């Protein structure tokens, strides 16, 4: 078991790989599935018998046919077997099929374009089920068609202008379609006439067989034909993986996608490249040429028993085998098997015994290490699903006739004390599982042999190896009954009839089930939301992770405004159709491909250089868009945490260097990409926490906020007021005491000006808490205000308009604040923050300026100028540059002074920003706390006290004018309060601003007067205790269950691309 845990650290084990993208064309194809009529299945046994007799290829045996079975088996069971059969695909494959249709419409041959022009996904599945050959086998593609025609070879020309009858696209599957067909499975109840042994030949021996069971036809990876099927995805060879065959990242330096598309239609080489990129996206790997891969990866020869440990391993002829792609291909097969077994057992009210055979581990296999990866993939999926409570009705999984290496065999413990043990077993424990866990074993039991002993009464779910281009049984139809597991299954079960799309109408695209990993909960959420809307309490408890064929939670409408109605419409159609519950990947199909193809652009500047520190290079808008698409795709395809960290930082640097790229990045799915990455980061390690922080920073630059702490955002505004900031600290301390929470955990958004900016920066940058801010004020009082002589201060005031030592002030800020940019504050899971300064550049009007830790959403703009790019200490320095106290602050060509000149109470500004971030409706449900720094008794008291004996007649008028501006605005803090108190909903807005019993300057250093400030504040708190308690109650409100459900659905919809992320 220790080895199994170690397995999950292998470079190729990527259990949370991203889903295929969902763009407009994808959503339209999915939406078409919702318009399908309800499936009406017939259980008429005679009708099936009639169709079976009409099947043009004769059956080699009669014992498994309905006509014979009805004599000795229950007619009701036979009817059940008919209607219980359906095609089965993974939700990833559903999305892949939409991409396939999009690709063929754009880049297919003229024959393919005509065929696929109006084709829907169910019609494609129908075609896959019905247009396949009767038999198809061997490295020479020996075949027999439904017309009876036989031959070998020629399948690679189907769909091209070189195709020749009988192998034409109208009647046969192309090799491209076969790749999809290998991931289309069929499942259903069946009668078993014997134990299914390889050479059973259809002889009736029912005493040792389960009377009935579930049988699933699966298709494994095929390596028999070079450059075809999974060979082209998993193997990297010198002959195959070349630019001429479409591999590699760069095709053309052209920067216009429309030109690219036109070129690709005419250029077969470019069409090949698009084909490779589609599959690279599906498997979430780079498309390497052999030369590229071997130039930077040192692939060493390993023994057969160790080849499962590395991602890339050498096989015969120096071919390179990609274990990651192989693992992901097997995940499709394994997940469908496990979840189908769970669903069937749940419906039957029994526990499932899943018998797994080796798909693709026979003549299709190219390396013996594949058996090790095969078993490890199943084990990893079982363990993962068990932790998520997704296999509550699966008690046993058995690997039959699969022979791993000694290293993998050692994972299984002996269950026998005999010298030659016959059974190897692993038990995966789970306290929440009804059986205490799942038993996984290696036992060469025959597929449909009777379950005895501890397994008696369980539902047997067996699998058999099918083919992507043959009818169930394959060689069976040639009369070759003993050659493989495919004809063996056809000789012992009903698959030759009931899994045959020409005989059983239930095997159709309209009746396809989509197996999903998160549909179970997502479906329940959608149902619950509808019930909340309608006021009903009934809950549909139908199995949900495998659902009917046509309900797709995808739409091309703007679901941000119609989200609830979309969910309701989806639920209304859920009885009829194809359901996908999936977290589709991050970016649109179009932009993903564009990014990969256009990454080479001579106009690109250094993405690591920040434009606000140096001049930006000249760059075209198209080039910026191209680069943006590429850096997004680079995040999507990152293979390690370190790689992900670097690529996300590059993305952040890119947005900072080119702010105009932000809207394009949002439009092209950057938020979805980042959310998918965020969902995968679950380990609590240093590198994971670091990457989480960087992803949070990138999301903040996209305007993403996530759900608020309460019903709406909790907003904190802190006034300016110099040393009187200690009043605000005392008020916030009292709120912390009442709520039992730290300020940073209490609020979603903080805005501060001047002294309020200092407090906000300490909290919002994650450098400390209220105690940290309080210590800064004591340091400020002693080192800055207390150490300045009258002569020195007056001298500086005359020459620099600064009474205090600005350099010392800047040093103090740098020593006490985190050395990071504003956006980097998001790495520490702190509230969104804005610090207000005032731009006083000559020749321009005074205007507030916001230093933000975030950007707003898609095409959302604030009325206030600002930046997220500055350092935190720069922002505080600018916001607290009080005239006559400190020098003005120059940054990026602008001259900043204290924000209190215009907005000494920044609550109104904060509300405007919060509405842009969280939405106006959300803000109405939130709580606003506005904290003042004391109401001065005399309008000009600060001015009079600050003078400290200065000769007023000798003072220049310039600094008086500047100072009067801040004094005038400071006295108007209560005016803002009166307006907001009238506009905001009752009980949601709280203003705390104690009256002061004596005058106190902004640079006061007298300990007695400072203590009086605190005394006045505590008296104010006691008098307004009830008001504080009301505020604490509002701040600690939690989001309702319905809000959390909506949050979940909206979050998944963003990941899937159903709604526009912003």
Automatic annotation (TrEMBL):
<feature type="domain" description="PNPLA">
    <location>
        <begin position="716"/>
        <end position="911"/>
    </location>
</feature>
<keyword id="KW-0443">Lipid metabolism</keyword>
<dbReference type="GO" id="GO:0016042">
    <property type="term" value="P:lipid catabolic process"/>
</dbReference>
<feature type="compositionally biased region" description="Basic and acidic residues">
    <location>
        <begin position="558"/>
        <end position="574"/>
    </location>
</feature>
<dbReference type="InterPro" id="IPR002641">
    <property type="entry name" value="PNPLA_dom"/>
</dbReference>
<dbReference type="Pfam" id="PF16062">
    <property type="entry name" value="MavL-like"/>
</dbReference>
<feature type="active site" description="Nucleophile">
    <location>
        <position position="754"/>
    </location>
</feature>
<feature type="active site" description="Proton acceptor">
    <location>
        <position position="898"/>
    </location>
</feature>
<dbReference type="InterPro" id="IPR032063">
    <property type="entry name" value="MavL-like"/>
</dbReference>
<dbReference type="GO" id="GO:0016020">
    <property type="term" value="C:membrane"/>
</dbReference>
<keyword id="KW-0442">Lipid degradation</keyword>
<feature type="short sequence motif" description="GXSXG">
    <location>
        <begin position="752"/>
        <end position="756"/>
    </location>
</feature>
<keyword id="KW-0378">Hydrolase</keyword>
<dbReference type="Pfam" id="PF01734">
    <property type="entry name" value="Patatin"/>
</dbReference>
<dbReference type="GO" id="GO:0047499">
    <property type="term" value="F:calcium-independent phospholipase A2 activity"/>
</dbReference>
<dbReference type="GO" id="GO:0019369">
    <property type="term" value="P:arachidonate metabolic process"/>
</dbReference>
<feature type="short sequence motif" description="GXGXXG">
    <location>
        <begin position="720"/>
        <end position="725"/>
    </location>
</feature>
<protein>
    <submittedName>
        <fullName>Calcium-independent phospholipase A2-gamma</fullName>
    </submittedName>
</protein>
<feature type="short sequence motif" description="DGA/G">
    <location>
        <begin position="898"/>
        <end position="900"/>
    </location>
</feature>
<feature type="region of interest" description="Disordered">
    <location>
        <begin position="558"/>
        <end position="577"/>
    </location>
</feature>
<dbReference type="InterPro" id="IPR016035">
    <property type="entry name" value="Acyl_Trfase/lysoPLipase"/>
</dbReference>
């Amino acid at each position: 078991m220790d080895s199994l845990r170690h397995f999950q650290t292998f470079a190729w084990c990527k259990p949370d790989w991203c889903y295929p993208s969902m763009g407009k064309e994808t959503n339209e194809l999915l939406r078409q599935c919702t318009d399908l009529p309800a499936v009406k299945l017939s259980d008429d046994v005679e009708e099936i018998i009639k169709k079976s007799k009409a099947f043009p290829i004769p059956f080699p045996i009669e014992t498994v046919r309905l006509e014979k079975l009805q004599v000795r088996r229950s007619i009701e069971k036979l009817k059940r077997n008919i209607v219980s059969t359906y095609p089965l695909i993974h939700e990833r494959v559903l999305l892949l099929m939409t991409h396939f249709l999009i690709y063929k419409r754009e880049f297919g041959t003229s024959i393919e374009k005509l065929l696929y022009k109006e084709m829907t996904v169910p019609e494609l599945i129908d075609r896959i089920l019905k247009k396949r050959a009767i038999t198809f086998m061997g490295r020479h593609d020996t075949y027999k068609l439904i017309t009876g025609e036989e031959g070998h070879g020629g399948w690679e020309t189907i769909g091209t202008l070189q195709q020749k009858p009988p192998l034409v696209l109208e009647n046969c599957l192309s090799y491209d379609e076969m790749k999809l067909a290998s991931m289309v499975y069929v499942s259903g109840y069946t009668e078993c006439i014997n134990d299914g042994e390889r050479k059973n030949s259809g002889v009736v021996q029912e005493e040792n067989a389960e009377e009935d069971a579930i049988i699933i036809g699966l298709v494994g990876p095929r390596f028999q034909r070079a450059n075809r099927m999974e060979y082209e995805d998993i193997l990297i060879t010198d002959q195959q993986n070349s630019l001429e065959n479409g591999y590699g990242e760069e095709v053309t330096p052209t920067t216009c996608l429309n030109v690219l598309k036109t070129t690709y239609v005419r250029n077969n080489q470019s069409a090949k490249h698009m084909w490779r990129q589609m599959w690279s996206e599906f498997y979430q790997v780079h498309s390497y040429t052999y030369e590229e891969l071997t130039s930077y990866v040192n692939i060493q020869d390993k023994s057969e028993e160790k080849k499962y440990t590395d991602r890339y391993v050498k096989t015969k002829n120096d071919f390179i085998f990609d274990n990651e792609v192989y693992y992901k291909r097997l995940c499709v097969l394994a997940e469908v098997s496990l979840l189908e077994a769970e669903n069937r057992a749940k419906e039957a009210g029994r526990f499932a015994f899943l018998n797994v055979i080796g798909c693709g581990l026979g003549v299709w296999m190219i390396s013996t290490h594949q058996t090790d990866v095969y078993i490890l993939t199943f084990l990893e999926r079982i363990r993962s699903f068990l932790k998520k409570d997704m296999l509550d009705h699966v008690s046993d999984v058995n690997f039959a006739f699969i022979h791993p290496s000694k290293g993998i065999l050692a994972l299984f413990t002996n269950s026998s004390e005999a010298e030659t043990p016959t059974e190897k077993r692993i038990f995966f424990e789970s306290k929440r599982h009804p059986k205490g866990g799942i038993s996984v074993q290696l036992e060469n039991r025959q597929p449909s042999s009777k379950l005895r002993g501890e397994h008696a009464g369980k539902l047997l779910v067996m699998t058999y190896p099918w083919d992507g281009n043959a009818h169930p049984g394959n060689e069976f139809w040639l009369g070759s009954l003993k050659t493989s597991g495919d004809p063996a299954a056809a000789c012992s079960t009903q698959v030759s009839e009931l899994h045959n799309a020409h005989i059983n109408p239930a095997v159709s695209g309209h009746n396809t089930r989509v197996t999903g990993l998160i549909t179970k909960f997502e479906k329940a959420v959608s149902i619950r939301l509808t019930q909340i809307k309608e006021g009903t309490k009934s809950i549909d408890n139908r199995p949900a992770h495998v659902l009917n064929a046509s309900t797709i939670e995808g739409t091309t409408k703007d679901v941000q405004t119609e989200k609830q109605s979309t969910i309701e419409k989806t639920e209304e159609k859920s009885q009829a159709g194809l359901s996908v519950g999936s977290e589709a990947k991050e970016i649109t199909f179009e932009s993903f491909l564009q990014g990969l193809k256009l990454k080479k652009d001579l106009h690109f500047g250094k993405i690591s250089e920040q434009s606000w520190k140096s001049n930006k290079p000249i760059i075209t808008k198209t080039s910026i868009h191209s680069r943006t698409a590429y850096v997004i795709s680079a995040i999507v395809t990152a293979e390690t945490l370190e790689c992900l960290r670097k690529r996300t930082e590059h993305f952040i640097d890119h947005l900072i260097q080119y702010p105009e790229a932000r809207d394009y990045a949002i439009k092209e799915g950057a938020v979805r990409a980042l959310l998918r990455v965020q969902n995968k980061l679950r380990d609590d390690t240093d590198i994971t926490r670091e990457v989480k922080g960087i992803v949070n920073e990138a999301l903040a630059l996209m305007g993403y906020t996530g759900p608020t702490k309460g019903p709406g955002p909790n907003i904190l505004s802190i006034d300016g007021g110099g040393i009187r900031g200690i009043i605000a600290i005392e008020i916030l301390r009292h709120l912390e005491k009442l709520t039992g929470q730290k300020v940073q955990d209490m609020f979603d958004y903080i805005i501060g000006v001047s002294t309020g900016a200092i407090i906000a920066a300490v909290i919002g940058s994650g450098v400390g808490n209220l105690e940290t801010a309080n210590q800064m004020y004591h340091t400020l009082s002693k080192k800055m205000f207390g150490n300045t002589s009258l002569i020195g201060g007056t001298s500086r005031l005359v020459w620099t308009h600064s009474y205090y030592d600005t350099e010392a002030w800047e040093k103090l800020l740098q020593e006490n604040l985190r050395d990071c940019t504003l956006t980097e504050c998001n790495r520490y899971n702190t509230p969104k923050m804005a610090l207000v300064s005032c731009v006083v550049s000559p020749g321009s009007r005074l205007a507030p300026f916001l230093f933000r830790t975030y950007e707003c959403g898609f095409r959302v703009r604030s009325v206030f100028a600002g930046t997220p790019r500055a350092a935190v200490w720069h922002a505080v320095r600018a916001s607290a540059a009080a005239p006559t106290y400190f020098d003005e602050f120059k940054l990026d060509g602008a001259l900043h002074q204290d924000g209190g000149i215009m907005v000494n109470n920044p609550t109104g500004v904060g509300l405007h920003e919060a509405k842009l971030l969280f939405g106006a409706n959300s803000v109405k449900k939130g709580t606003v706390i506005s904290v003042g720094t004391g109401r001065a008794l005399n309008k000009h008291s600060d001015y009079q006290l600050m003078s400290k004996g200065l000769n007023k007649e000798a003072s220049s008028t310039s600094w008086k004018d500047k100072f009067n501006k801040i004094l005038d605005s400071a006295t108007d803090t209560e005016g803002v309060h009166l307006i907001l108190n009238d506009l905001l909903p009752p009980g949601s807005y709280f203003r705390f601003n104690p009256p002061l019993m004596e005058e106190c300057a902004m640079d006061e250093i007298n300990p007695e007067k400072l203590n009086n400030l605190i005394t006045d504040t505590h008296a104010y708190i006691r008098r307004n205790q009830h008001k504080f308690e009301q505020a604490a109650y509002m701040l600690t409100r939690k989001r309702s269950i319905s809000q959390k459900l909506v949050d979940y659905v909206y979050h998944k919809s963003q990941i899937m691309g159903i709604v526009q992320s912003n």
